[in-house]
Structure formats: C-alpha cells, structure tokens
Amino acid sequence: MKMLHTLSLLLALLSLTFHASTLADLCAADLQSPNTPSGYPCKPLNTTTVEDFTYTGLQSGPFLPPYGVSDTQVSVSQMLGLNGQGLSVARLDILGGGVVPLHTHPNAAEMIIVVKGTMTAGFITQTSLATSTVYMKTLKEGDVMVFPQGLTHFQFNPGKEVSTAYASYSSSKPDLQLSTVVSFGNNLPPPVVSKVTYITISEVLRLKVLFGGTLA
Question: InterPro entries recorded for this chain (predicted)?
Fold first, then answer.
C-alpha cells in the first residue's frame, strides 16, 4: 500500500511537467501565459491560423558591435507553431574578422550549415579538472557541424567577405549565455572579476567598458 501511495505521488508530480502542447497535434503558443518546461499553453484552436506556422523575414539584420555578427532568430516567440516541437532556426551572418564569442545553449544542441563563405567553428569539452579538448574546423559552403547541448562553442569568419550559415536548435526557445557578457557585463567589482578570472585589473576595466559592466 505504501509503495502504491508513493507511486501515485510520483505520477502526480510528473503530470505537472506535461502540458497540453505535448498532447495536441498542434499547439500554437499563447505567449500571454507563462512558459513551462514543456512549452506554452495552446491558443484556442478557433484563433489558430496558418500564420502561426510560417515566418517571413529570415534575412540578415544589423551587425552588432563589437562582434560584427547578425543573428536572426526564429524561435517560438516569432513562430507560435514551434511551441512544443523542440526545434527552432536562425540565420547567422558574420562580417570578415567578426566573431561569435564563446557561448553556450544550456537547453539545446545546435547544428549549422554554411551557405556562403567560410566559417571557423568549434566546441570545447572539459576532459578533467585541469584539461579540456577543442574540436575545431574551418567550414566551407555546404559543410555542416553540430555543437552538443550545453558545451561551450564559437564561430568566427577568417575571411574578408561576409559568411552566412543557417542554424537549427533542439529547442523551440533556446537559451543563450555569452561568456563575455557573463564575465564582464556584470556589476561585480573589478577586483573580484580579476580574482576569479586571473585577468589583470586594467584588462578587466577595458572589458567591462566594452561589454557594459559596472566599474565600481
């Protein structure tokens, strides 16, 4: 009897993690409701249209300083029909010499296909407390590379012309954590940042200015 009671409680808890989006054959997101681990609640079916399942405008956008990168995302926020599907896409354009710095997607794997120019890309995995291994390659048009979920990775353009790739993610709303912003675009005092990164105070101050962190 005790085991049955425990099992019932476990099933009840598990049921809280499932949402209507996992049960319906289509579930356009209701963005006015809270997001959950399994997606947004569904819009009423009588308000769902084909526009919820299409997106127009996967084009190059403004190039963001200091990176020289344009990243046009199509997640559930832009295409409501991605809700609960576990996928999204993006277009990545990098100016010559531009770089997508070290970053992670904690909740998604990423795959890119280069369609223009060249792009050097790689990811890093920690193999022990003191060592890590880098997997890096310069990709040309038609080349594909995957970045496993949660691993730190990067892309940059080694050439002079703009390079372009399309990316897909195993999440309808992939998170992004840029190591530069996390490390220097914060309100930690520069001496603390210097202490925890082994970077000189002068360099920390320069990077805090570059990435919008506080100097006090």
Answer: Cupin_1, Germin, Germin_Mn-BS, RmlC-like_jellyroll, RmlC_Cupin_sf
Encode pLDDT of 149-163 as tens digits.
999 999 999 999 999
Q: 216 burial class (0-12, 13-18, 19+ CB within 10 angstroms)?
A: exposed
* Calpha distance 144→119 (Å, rounded): 11
Q: Tell me: is residue 19 an annotated ligand-binding position.
A: no
Contacts of residue 149, defined as CB under 8 A and 6 or more positions apart, other chains included, come to 105, 106, 107, 108, 109, 170
Contact 110, 153 (CB under 8 A): yes
Largest CA-CA distance found in the chain, in angstroms, rounded:
71
105 is in an annotated binding site: yes
182's torsion region: left (phi>0), alpha (psi -120 to 50) or beta? alpha
**Cα(17)–Cα(120) distance, integer angstroms:** 39
Summarised one tens digit per residue, pLDDT across range 6-23 is 445 433 433 333 444 455
The model's pTM is 0.84
103 assigned binding-site residue: yes
Q: Is 5 annotated as a binding residue?
A: no
The answer to whether residues 106 and 150 touch, using CB atoms and an 8 Å cutoff, is yes
